[in-house]
């Protein structure tokens, strides 16, 4: 999880742990301490100097934080901090993996950062796309195993077999009144010339789930918007796989190391490097934390497609977007 079990009282130990692995002989990218400063301030009400903060040993950390869930969240933050970078040194990857080993932490993000540090991009794609909450939904599809065998990794994200029934279901959202969730999704796709699920060249229904969240949270589909919706989603669910989605999205759109299999043109990264980029991610994390319903697990947004978007936002305690 991400900031689900840790509390503001844990912030000093968390901060020291992250710099112990990720800062080493200096930050790899100036956005790392900036990101940490803003996230700790916004979510933990904690301020410190991430340039001069003293590191902590694994032994001292283990005594201060014995809870496995909290330890895993600290590791998530280490991974997120390092995946902001355009290159990841094997030394830092090894340091994070060593912490995980000493603290008995199992985390799917460890393989991702290890493979990216070795520039094994194809393997890193496997790490990411097969540990993502989209993949959890793929596995529940009755014909996914056949598609996976035939098309490989593309089947985890894309429509590989056309389905008029599926495409029509999405197209029919046009018939709903303006201001409803369903009409909002239809507009979201049409404005961007996206193909609906069921149409070759479009994403599949598992991935389309996150587009409903784009609409609910009012995030764009550009690089910073994708990072925002991933941050928001990881806080608005109990799904561990949503954390992996957030981590990989940081690497795709900010670090530029992990390559998406969805977009036609490659993303070069640096999309968080806006005047208020890290602030927007912190706000998205905080907004997601406030949500009163799980937006990833056990929800079919078609059940709510006819309802006014603003009513759903109020009912599910989705804070108004401020940035």
Structural notes for this entry:
The protein is mostly helical and 323 residues long. The protein has two domains: 8-107, no CATH class; 133-315, no CATH class. It is 54% helix and 0% strand. It has 16 helices and no strands. Helix 1 crosses helix 4 (68-82), helix 5 (90-102) runs antiparallel to helix 6 (109-117) and helix 6 packs antiparallel against helix 7 (121-129). The chain is globular, with a radius of gyration of 20 Å. The two termini are 25 Å apart. 45% of the residues are buried. The mean pLDDT is 96.
Write a concise synopsis of the structure shown:
This protein folds into 2 domains: 8-107, no CATH class; 133-315, no CATH class.
Give short descriptive properties of this protein:
mainly alpha; globular; single chain
| Oligomer description | single chain
Spatial gap, N to C terminus: 25 Å
**Helix count from the secondary structure assignment:** 16
Name the average pLDDT: 96
Low-confidence stretches: none
Our Rg estimate from Cα atoms comes to 20 Å
Helix and strand element order = HHHHHHHHHHHHHHHH
| Structural shape | globular
Helix content: 40-55%
Helix/strand/pairing category:
mainly alpha
Strand proportion: under 5%
Note the topology:
Elements (H helix, E strand, L loop, with lengths): L10 H12 L8 H14 L13 H7 L3 H15 L7 H13 L6 H9 L3 H9 L3 H7 L4 H8 L12 H8 L9 H11 L13 H13 L5 H13 L5 H15 L21 H14 L18 H7 L8
Helix pairs in contact: 1-4, 2-15, 4-5, 5-6, 6-7, 8-12, 11-12, 12-13, 13-14, 13-15
């Amino acid at each position: 999880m991400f900031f689900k079990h840790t509390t503001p009282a844990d912030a000093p130990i968390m901060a020291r742990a992250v710099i112990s692995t990720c800062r080493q002989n200096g930050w790899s990218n100036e956005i790392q301490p900036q990101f940490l400063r803003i996230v700790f301030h916004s979510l933990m009400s904690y301020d410190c100097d991430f340039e001069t903060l003293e590191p902590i040993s694994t032994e001292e950390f283990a005594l201060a934080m014995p809870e496995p869930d909290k330890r895993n969240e600290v590791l998530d933050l280490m991974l997120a901090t390092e995946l902001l970078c355009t290159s990841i040194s094997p030394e830092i990857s090894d340091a994070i993996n060593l912490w995980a080993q000493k603290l008995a932490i199992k985390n799917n993000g460890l393989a991702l950062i290890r493979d990216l540090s070795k520039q094994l991009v194809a393997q890193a794609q496997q790490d990411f796309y097969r540990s993502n909450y989209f993949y959890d939904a793929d596995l529940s599809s009755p014909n996914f195993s056949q598609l996976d065998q035939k098309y490989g990794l593309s089947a985890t994200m894309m429509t590989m077999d056309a389905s008029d029934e599926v495409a029509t279901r999405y197209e029919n959202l046009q018939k709903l009144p303006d201001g409803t969730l369903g009409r909002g999704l239809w507009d979201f796709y049409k404005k961007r010339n996206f193909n609906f699920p069921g149409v070759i060249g479009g994403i599949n229904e598992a991935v389309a789930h996150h587009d409903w969240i784009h609409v609910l949270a009012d995030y764009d589909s550009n690089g910073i918007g994708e990072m925002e919706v991933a941050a928001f989603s990881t806080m608005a669910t109990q799904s561990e796989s949503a954390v992996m989605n957030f981590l990989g999205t940081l690497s795709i759109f900010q670090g530029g190391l992990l390559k998406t299999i969805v977009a036609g043109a490659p993303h070069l990264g640096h999309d968080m490097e806006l005047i208020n980029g890290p602030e927007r991610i912190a706000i998205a994390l905080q907004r997601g934390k406030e949500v009163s319903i799980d937006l990833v697990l056990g929800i079919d947004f078609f059940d709510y497609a006819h309802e006014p978007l603003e009513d759903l936002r109020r009912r599910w305690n989705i804070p108004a977007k401020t940035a």
